[in-house]
Design goal:
elongated; mainly alpha
Length: 80
């Protein structure tokens, strides 16, 4: 039982790292939000809102990086 608790605690982000990544991802989110609002484009606007909100609900490192990377890349991959 003890090794299960130790193994499950490893992928979680520490508080300092979570705060740092929250600020970084939210900064990109604010940039996408402003760009989407000024250019009247829904995808960057939605990704910006998502980047500013989702880190508050994620506490695992792999999920934070995967969702953050997807939301950062999505406007570039689907641009018209």
């Amino acid at each position: 039982m003890r090794h299960l608790l130790a193994a499950s605690a490893a992928p979680y982000v520490s508080l300092q790292a979570w705060l740092l990544w929250n600020v970084v991802l939210s900064s990109f989110g604010l940039g996408y939000f402003i760009y989407g609002k000024k250019q009247a484009k829904a995808l960057p606007l939605a990704c910006g809102i998502g980047l500013m909100i989702f880190p508050y609900f994620i506490d695992q490192a792999w999920a934070l990086f995967a969702i953050g990377g997807l939301l950062l890349a999505l406007p570039w991959l689907l641009r018209t």
